[in-house]
Amino acid sequence: MSRSDVLVDAEWVEAHGGDPGVVLVEVDEDTSAYDKGHIRNAVKIDWKTDLQDPVRRDFVDKAGFDALLSERGIANDDTVILYGGNNNWFAAYAYWYFKLYGHRNVKLLDGGRKKWELESRELVTEVPQRPRTSYHAKEQDQAIRAFRDEVVAAIGNDNLVDVRSPDEFAGRLLAPAHLPQEQAQRGGHVPTAKNVPWSKAADEDGTFKSDDALRALYGDEAGLDFGKDTIAYCRIGERSAHTWFVLHELLGQPNVKNYDGSWTEYGSLVGVPIELGDAK
Amino acid sequence: MTADGCGAPAGGAPVSAATDAGAQAVVQGRVTRDGSAVGVGYARLLNSGGDFVAEVPLGEDGGFRFFAAPGSWTLRVLAPGNIRAERVVSADTGKITELEVAV
Protein backbone atom coordinates (compact mmCIF):
# COMPACT_ATOMS: atom_id res chain seq x y z
CA MET A 1 0.00 0.00 0.00
CA SER A 2 1.36 3.43 -0.87
CA ARG A 3 0.42 6.88 0.33
CA SER A 4 -1.55 7.58 -2.83
CA ASP A 5 -3.87 4.69 -1.89
CA VAL A 6 -4.88 6.32 1.38
CA LEU A 7 -4.14 10.06 1.08
CA VAL A 8 -5.08 12.86 -1.31
CA ASP A 9 -3.87 16.45 -1.28
CA ALA A 10 -5.76 19.72 -1.57
CA GLU A 11 -5.07 20.06 -5.29
CA TRP A 12 -6.64 16.67 -5.91
CA VAL A 13 -9.72 17.64 -3.92
CA GLU A 14 -10.06 20.93 -5.80
CA ALA A 15 -9.84 19.06 -9.11
CA HIS A 16 -11.96 16.00 -8.26
CA GLY A 17 -14.15 16.88 -5.28
CA GLY A 18 -17.21 17.14 -7.52
CA ASP A 19 -16.54 14.09 -9.67
CA PRO A 20 -19.19 11.35 -9.83
CA GLY A 21 -18.23 8.54 -7.48
CA VAL A 22 -16.31 10.85 -5.15
CA VAL A 23 -17.85 11.93 -1.85
CA LEU A 24 -16.16 14.45 0.43
CA VAL A 25 -17.07 14.00 4.09
CA GLU A 26 -16.16 16.37 6.91
CA VAL A 27 -15.86 14.76 10.34
CA ASP A 28 -14.81 17.27 12.89
CA GLU A 29 -14.12 17.39 16.58
CA ASP A 30 -15.91 20.73 16.64
CA THR A 31 -19.17 19.49 15.15
CA SER A 32 -20.33 23.03 14.33
CA ALA A 33 -17.31 23.75 12.11
CA TYR A 34 -19.03 22.32 9.02
CA ASP A 35 -21.97 24.68 9.40
CA LYS A 36 -19.68 27.71 9.40
CA GLY A 37 -18.06 26.63 6.15
CA HIS A 38 -16.86 23.45 4.47
CA ILE A 39 -15.20 22.28 1.28
CA ARG A 40 -17.56 22.49 -1.69
CA ASN A 41 -19.68 19.32 -2.15
CA ALA A 42 -18.74 17.95 1.29
CA VAL A 43 -21.37 16.29 3.47
CA LYS A 44 -21.08 16.09 7.23
CA ILE A 45 -20.88 13.16 9.59
CA ASP A 46 -21.13 13.91 13.30
CA TRP A 47 -18.70 11.62 15.14
CA LYS A 48 -20.96 11.46 18.16
CA THR A 49 -24.59 11.63 17.09
CA ASP A 50 -24.07 9.70 13.84
CA LEU A 51 -21.43 7.14 14.78
CA GLN A 52 -22.08 6.31 18.44
CA ASP A 53 -24.94 4.20 19.75
CA PRO A 54 -27.15 6.59 21.75
CA VAL A 55 -27.66 4.14 24.62
CA ARG A 56 -24.91 1.51 24.85
CA ARG A 57 -21.25 2.44 24.81
CA ASP A 58 -20.57 1.14 21.34
CA PHE A 59 -20.74 2.09 17.69
CA VAL A 60 -23.91 2.18 15.67
CA ASP A 61 -24.53 -1.34 14.45
CA LYS A 62 -24.32 -2.51 10.85
CA ALA A 63 -27.95 -1.62 10.16
CA GLY A 64 -27.36 1.82 11.63
CA PHE A 65 -24.28 2.37 9.48
CA ASP A 66 -26.24 1.25 6.41
CA ALA A 67 -28.98 3.73 7.24
CA LEU A 68 -26.53 6.58 7.87
CA LEU A 69 -24.58 6.16 4.64
CA SER A 70 -27.72 5.60 2.58
CA GLU A 71 -29.22 8.79 3.97
CA ARG A 72 -26.03 10.77 3.25
CA GLY A 73 -26.04 9.49 -0.34
CA ILE A 74 -22.86 7.41 -0.07
CA ALA A 75 -22.74 4.22 -2.15
CA ASN A 76 -20.59 1.13 -1.62
CA ASP A 77 -18.50 1.91 -4.72
CA ASP A 78 -17.93 5.59 -3.92
CA THR A 79 -14.48 6.89 -3.09
CA VAL A 80 -14.92 8.60 0.25
CA ILE A 81 -12.52 11.44 1.07
CA LEU A 82 -12.54 12.28 4.76
CA TYR A 83 -11.20 15.44 6.31
CA GLY A 84 -11.49 17.32 9.59
CA GLY A 85 -9.74 19.61 12.03
CA ASN A 86 -7.05 18.93 14.61
CA ASN A 87 -4.68 17.07 12.27
CA ASN A 88 -7.54 14.94 10.94
CA TRP A 89 -8.04 13.49 14.40
CA PHE A 90 -11.74 12.65 13.99
CA ALA A 91 -11.42 12.10 10.25
CA ALA A 92 -8.86 9.36 10.95
CA TYR A 93 -11.28 7.89 13.46
CA ALA A 94 -14.00 7.88 10.78
CA TYR A 95 -11.53 6.32 8.33
CA TRP A 96 -10.93 3.46 10.75
CA TYR A 97 -14.69 3.20 11.28
CA PHE A 98 -15.36 3.02 7.51
CA LYS A 99 -12.70 0.29 7.27
CA LEU A 100 -14.26 -1.52 10.24
CA TYR A 101 -17.47 -1.79 8.22
CA GLY A 102 -15.58 -2.79 5.08
CA HIS A 103 -15.82 0.31 2.88
CA ARG A 104 -13.38 -0.27 0.03
CA ASN A 105 -12.30 3.15 -1.16
CA VAL A 106 -11.66 5.63 1.60
CA LYS A 107 -8.88 8.20 1.88
CA LEU A 108 -7.89 11.15 4.01
CA LEU A 109 -7.23 14.69 2.80
CA ASP A 110 -3.65 15.14 4.05
CA GLY A 111 -3.53 18.10 6.42
CA GLY A 112 -7.30 18.13 6.76
CA ARG A 113 -9.36 21.20 7.38
CA LYS A 114 -6.57 23.09 9.12
CA LYS A 115 -4.16 23.10 6.19
CA TRP A 116 -7.03 23.94 3.86
CA GLU A 117 -8.04 26.89 6.04
CA LEU A 118 -4.52 28.13 6.64
CA GLU A 119 -4.01 28.18 2.87
CA SER A 120 -7.17 30.28 2.55
CA ARG A 121 -8.83 27.81 0.20
CA GLU A 122 -12.54 28.05 -0.58
CA LEU A 123 -15.10 27.15 2.07
CA VAL A 124 -18.83 27.30 1.35
CA THR A 125 -21.97 27.01 3.45
CA GLU A 126 -24.10 25.43 0.71
CA VAL A 127 -25.09 21.88 1.70
CA PRO A 128 -25.05 19.43 -1.22
CA GLN A 129 -28.15 17.38 -1.91
CA ARG A 130 -27.11 13.84 -2.67
CA PRO A 131 -29.67 11.25 -3.79
CA ARG A 132 -30.32 8.48 -1.33
CA THR A 133 -28.43 5.22 -1.82
CA SER A 134 -28.88 1.68 -0.61
CA TYR A 135 -25.69 1.06 1.33
CA HIS A 136 -24.73 -2.39 2.57
CA ALA A 137 -21.94 -2.57 5.13
CA LYS A 138 -19.93 -5.70 5.82
CA GLU A 139 -19.70 -7.29 9.25
CA GLN A 140 -17.22 -5.51 11.51
CA ASP A 141 -13.61 -6.39 10.75
CA GLN A 142 -12.44 -7.47 14.19
CA ALA A 143 -8.87 -7.68 12.93
CA ILE A 144 -8.55 -3.94 13.45
CA ARG A 145 -10.53 -3.53 16.69
CA ALA A 146 -9.13 -4.55 20.09
CA PHE A 147 -11.15 -5.32 23.20
CA ARG A 148 -10.06 -5.10 26.82
CA ASP A 149 -9.03 -8.72 27.31
CA GLU A 150 -6.67 -8.45 24.36
CA VAL A 151 -5.07 -5.40 25.95
CA VAL A 152 -4.47 -7.21 29.23
CA ALA A 153 -3.07 -10.20 27.31
CA ALA A 154 -0.73 -7.93 25.39
CA ILE A 155 1.01 -6.60 28.51
CA GLY A 156 4.63 -7.60 28.27
CA ASN A 157 4.00 -9.58 25.09
CA ASP A 158 2.96 -7.34 22.22
CA ASN A 159 3.35 -3.65 21.42
CA LEU A 160 1.05 -1.35 23.34
CA VAL A 161 1.10 2.25 22.21
CA ASP A 162 -0.43 4.87 24.44
CA VAL A 163 -0.91 7.85 22.14
CA ARG A 164 -2.10 10.35 24.76
CA SER A 165 -0.07 13.32 25.93
CA PRO A 166 2.77 12.69 28.42
CA ASP A 167 0.69 14.24 31.23
CA GLU A 168 -2.18 11.84 30.59
CA PHE A 169 0.25 8.90 30.29
CA ALA A 170 1.83 9.75 33.65
CA GLY A 171 -1.56 10.12 35.32
CA ARG A 172 -1.38 13.90 35.91
CA LEU A 173 -4.24 14.67 33.49
CA LEU A 174 -7.29 12.55 32.71
CA ALA A 175 -8.30 14.16 29.43
CA PRO A 176 -6.72 16.19 26.64
CA ALA A 177 -5.85 19.72 27.71
CA HIS A 178 -8.60 21.39 25.71
CA LEU A 179 -11.29 19.47 27.59
CA PRO A 180 -12.39 19.73 31.22
CA GLN A 181 -10.60 17.31 33.54
CA GLU A 182 -13.69 15.73 35.00
CA GLN A 183 -13.34 12.04 34.31
CA ALA A 184 -13.75 9.82 37.37
CA GLN A 185 -11.49 6.90 36.45
CA ARG A 186 -7.98 6.21 37.68
CA GLY A 187 -5.06 7.88 35.95
CA GLY A 188 -2.01 6.20 34.50
CA HIS A 189 -1.28 3.80 31.67
CA VAL A 190 -1.25 0.12 30.76
CA PRO A 191 2.03 -1.41 31.98
CA THR A 192 4.66 -1.85 29.24
CA ALA A 193 2.91 0.63 26.95
CA LYS A 194 5.14 3.04 25.02
CA ASN A 195 4.05 6.66 25.01
CA VAL A 196 4.04 8.15 21.52
CA PRO A 197 1.64 11.10 21.49
CA TRP A 198 -0.47 10.76 18.35
CA SER A 199 0.32 14.29 17.19
CA LYS A 200 4.02 13.48 16.77
CA ALA A 201 3.04 11.72 13.55
CA ALA A 202 1.90 15.01 12.02
CA ASP A 203 3.71 18.17 11.05
CA GLU A 204 2.37 21.48 12.29
CA ASP A 205 0.23 21.93 9.17
CA GLY A 206 -1.50 18.64 9.97
CA THR A 207 0.08 16.59 7.16
CA PHE A 208 1.63 13.24 7.99
CA LYS A 209 5.40 13.03 8.38
CA SER A 210 7.41 11.00 5.87
CA ASP A 211 7.51 7.22 6.15
CA ASP A 212 11.17 7.36 7.21
CA ALA A 213 10.42 9.89 9.95
CA LEU A 214 7.46 7.81 11.14
CA ARG A 215 9.51 4.60 11.24
CA ALA A 216 12.17 6.39 13.27
CA LEU A 217 9.55 7.82 15.63
CA TYR A 218 7.85 4.51 16.45
CA GLY A 219 10.81 2.20 15.99
CA ASP A 220 14.12 3.79 16.96
CA GLU A 221 12.78 6.41 19.37
CA ALA A 222 9.83 4.63 21.01
CA GLY A 223 11.17 1.11 20.76
CA LEU A 224 8.23 -0.61 19.09
CA ASP A 225 9.09 -4.05 17.75
CA PHE A 226 7.75 -3.99 14.20
CA GLY A 227 7.83 -7.78 14.19
CA LYS A 228 5.09 -7.94 16.83
CA ASP A 229 1.37 -7.21 16.85
CA THR A 230 0.35 -3.77 18.08
CA ILE A 231 -2.58 -2.29 19.98
CA ALA A 232 -3.00 1.49 20.09
CA TYR A 233 -5.16 3.26 22.65
CA CYS A 234 -5.89 6.77 23.94
CA ARG A 235 -8.84 7.97 26.01
CA ILE A 236 -11.84 7.01 23.87
CA GLY A 237 -10.22 5.67 20.72
CA GLU A 238 -10.13 8.67 18.41
CA ARG A 239 -6.53 9.77 18.73
CA SER A 240 -5.43 6.13 18.57
CA ALA A 241 -7.34 5.73 15.31
CA HIS A 242 -4.94 8.35 13.92
CA THR A 243 -1.97 6.24 15.10
CA TRP A 244 -3.64 3.09 13.74
CA PHE A 245 -3.81 4.88 10.37
CA VAL A 246 -0.10 5.68 10.56
CA LEU A 247 1.03 2.20 11.56
CA HIS A 248 -1.39 0.13 9.47
CA GLU A 249 -2.14 2.27 6.42
CA LEU A 250 1.03 4.34 5.95
CA LEU A 251 3.73 2.02 7.33
CA GLY A 252 1.93 -1.18 6.31
CA GLN A 253 2.23 -2.96 9.65
CA PRO A 254 0.06 -6.08 9.30
CA ASN A 255 -1.48 -6.58 12.74
CA VAL A 256 -2.47 -3.31 14.31
CA LYS A 257 -5.66 -2.86 16.32
CA ASN A 258 -7.31 0.20 17.77
CA TYR A 259 -8.63 -0.26 21.31
CA ASP A 260 -11.61 2.09 21.21
CA GLY A 261 -12.57 1.35 24.81
CA SER A 262 -9.25 2.98 25.62
CA TRP A 263 -8.43 4.62 28.92
CA THR A 264 -12.00 5.48 29.89
CA GLU A 265 -12.67 1.73 29.94
CA TYR A 266 -9.29 0.38 31.06
CA GLY A 267 -8.85 2.97 33.79
CA SER A 268 -12.23 1.97 35.24
CA LEU A 269 -11.74 -1.81 35.21
CA VAL A 270 -11.48 -3.61 38.53
CA GLY A 271 -8.33 -5.59 39.09
CA VAL A 272 -6.22 -4.72 36.05
CA PRO A 273 -2.64 -3.50 36.49
CA ILE A 274 -1.95 0.21 36.11
CA GLU A 275 1.38 1.96 35.99
CA LEU A 276 1.93 5.56 37.01
CA GLY A 277 4.63 8.03 36.09
CA ASP A 278 6.47 9.28 33.06
CA ALA A 279 7.73 7.13 30.22
CA LYS A 280 10.93 5.32 31.08
CA MET B 1 -19.36 22.64 30.60
CA THR B 2 -19.28 18.89 30.23
CA ALA B 3 -17.29 16.55 28.08
CA ASP B 4 -19.11 13.27 27.72
CA GLY B 5 -16.88 12.44 24.81
CA CYS B 6 -13.68 13.65 23.32
CA GLY B 7 -15.12 16.50 21.33
CA ALA B 8 -14.67 20.19 21.82
CA PRO B 9 -17.70 22.16 22.92
CA ALA B 10 -19.86 22.90 19.89
CA GLY B 11 -18.74 26.16 18.42
CA GLY B 12 -15.39 26.18 20.17
CA ALA B 13 -14.89 27.75 23.54
CA PRO B 14 -16.27 31.28 23.68
CA VAL B 15 -14.46 33.25 26.35
CA SER B 16 -17.52 35.39 26.90
CA ALA B 17 -19.15 32.49 28.76
CA ALA B 18 -18.62 32.64 32.48
CA THR B 19 -16.22 29.96 33.62
CA ASP B 20 -15.50 28.91 37.15
CA ALA B 21 -12.06 27.34 37.17
CA GLY B 22 -12.96 25.04 40.06
CA ALA B 23 -10.31 22.34 40.17
CA GLN B 24 -9.19 23.13 36.62
CA ALA B 25 -6.08 24.99 35.49
CA VAL B 26 -7.61 27.08 32.73
CA VAL B 27 -5.66 28.95 30.06
CA GLN B 28 -7.91 31.02 27.87
CA GLY B 29 -7.88 34.16 25.83
CA ARG B 30 -8.50 35.88 22.55
CA VAL B 31 -6.52 36.42 19.37
CA THR B 32 -6.78 39.83 17.74
CA ARG B 33 -5.30 41.64 14.80
CA ASP B 34 -5.44 45.44 14.68
CA GLY B 35 -7.98 45.29 17.48
CA SER B 36 -10.37 42.90 15.68
CA ALA B 37 -10.99 39.26 16.54
CA VAL B 38 -9.16 36.67 14.44
CA GLY B 39 -12.00 34.20 13.85
CA VAL B 40 -10.15 31.79 11.54
CA GLY B 41 -7.10 30.14 12.98
CA TYR B 42 -5.85 27.67 15.53
CA ALA B 43 -4.43 27.82 19.03
CA ARG B 44 -1.98 25.09 20.00
CA LEU B 45 -0.76 24.27 23.48
CA LEU B 46 2.81 22.98 23.80
CA ASN B 47 4.32 21.58 26.99
CA SER B 48 7.54 22.80 28.55
CA GLY B 49 9.46 20.36 26.35
CA GLY B 50 7.99 21.98 23.25
CA ASP B 51 5.75 19.01 22.48
CA PHE B 52 2.25 19.53 21.13
CA VAL B 53 -0.49 18.76 23.66
CA ALA B 54 -3.74 20.14 22.27
CA GLU B 55 -5.19 22.32 19.56
CA VAL B 56 -8.48 24.17 19.17
CA PRO B 57 -9.92 26.22 16.34
CA LEU B 58 -10.41 29.84 17.32
CA GLY B 59 -13.99 30.84 18.02
CA GLU B 60 -15.67 33.54 15.97
CA ASP B 61 -14.62 35.97 18.69
CA GLY B 62 -11.00 34.81 18.39
CA GLY B 63 -11.38 32.89 21.64
CA PHE B 64 -9.67 29.74 22.84
CA ARG B 65 -9.61 27.76 26.06
CA PHE B 66 -7.50 24.94 27.45
CA PHE B 67 -7.78 22.88 30.61
CA ALA B 68 -4.12 22.33 31.36
CA ALA B 69 -2.16 20.89 34.23
CA PRO B 70 -0.42 23.37 36.56
CA GLY B 71 2.88 24.54 35.11
CA SER B 72 4.45 26.41 32.25
CA TRP B 73 3.05 26.13 28.74
CA THR B 74 3.63 27.68 25.35
CA LEU B 75 0.63 28.89 23.41
CA ARG B 76 1.13 29.03 19.65
CA VAL B 77 -1.33 30.70 17.29
CA LEU B 78 -1.57 29.82 13.58
CA ALA B 79 -3.73 31.80 11.18
CA PRO B 80 -4.03 32.16 7.39
CA GLY B 81 -1.35 34.31 5.77
CA ASN B 82 1.49 32.54 7.60
CA ILE B 83 0.57 34.32 10.80
CA ARG B 84 2.28 32.78 13.83
CA ALA B 85 2.56 34.00 17.39
CA GLU B 86 3.75 32.45 20.65
CA ARG B 87 3.27 33.26 24.30
CA VAL B 88 4.61 31.48 27.37
CA VAL B 89 1.95 31.10 30.03
CA SER B 90 1.76 29.66 33.51
CA ALA B 91 -1.32 27.70 34.63
CA ASP B 92 -2.42 27.10 38.21
CA THR B 93 -5.14 24.85 39.60
CA GLY B 94 -8.29 26.81 40.44
CA LYS B 95 -7.22 29.79 38.34
CA ILE B 96 -8.10 31.14 34.94
CA THR B 97 -5.04 32.49 33.20
CA GLU B 98 -6.22 35.05 30.64
CA LEU B 99 -4.19 36.30 27.75
CA GLU B 100 -4.82 38.41 24.71
CA VAL B 101 -2.64 37.62 21.74
CA ALA B 102 -2.23 40.38 19.16
CA VAL B 103 -0.82 39.02 15.90
Overall description:
The complex is a heterodimer of chains A (280) and B (103). Chain A is an alpha/beta fold and 280 residues long. Chain A has eleven helices and ten strands. Chain A folds into two domains: 3-140, Oxidized Rhodanese, domain 1; 143-266, Rhodanese-like domain (Oxidized Rhodanese, domain 1, 3-Layer(aba) Sandwich), CATH 3.40.250.10. Helices cover 32% and strands 12% of the residues of chain A. A five-stranded parallel beta sheet of chain A has the order 1-5-4-2-3. In chain A, strands 6-10-9-7-8 form a five-stranded parallel beta sheet. In chain A, strand 2, helix 3 and strand 3 form a beta-alpha-beta unit. In chain A, helix 5 packs across helix 10. Chain A is globular. The two termini of chain A are 33 Å apart. Chain B has 103 residues and is mainly β. Chain B has a single domain (25-102), classed as Carboxypeptidase-like, regulatory domain (Immunoglobulin-like), CATH 2.60.40. Chain B contains no helices and eight strands. Chain B has strands at 25-33, 36-37, 42-46, 52-57, 63-68, 71-79, 83-91, 95-102. In chain B, strand 1 (25-33) and strand 2 form a beta hairpin. The radius of gyration of chain B is 13 Å and the shape is globular. The relative contact order of chain B is 0.29. The model of chain B is unreliable at 1-18 (pLDDT under 50). Chain A binds chain B through residues 29-33, 36, 47-48, 52, 85-87, 90, 114, 117-120, 165-167, 172-173, 175-182, 197, 199-200, 204, 235-236, 238-239, and chain B through 1-3, 5-13, 23-24, 40-42, 44-45, 47, 49, 51-57, 60, 65-69, 78-81.
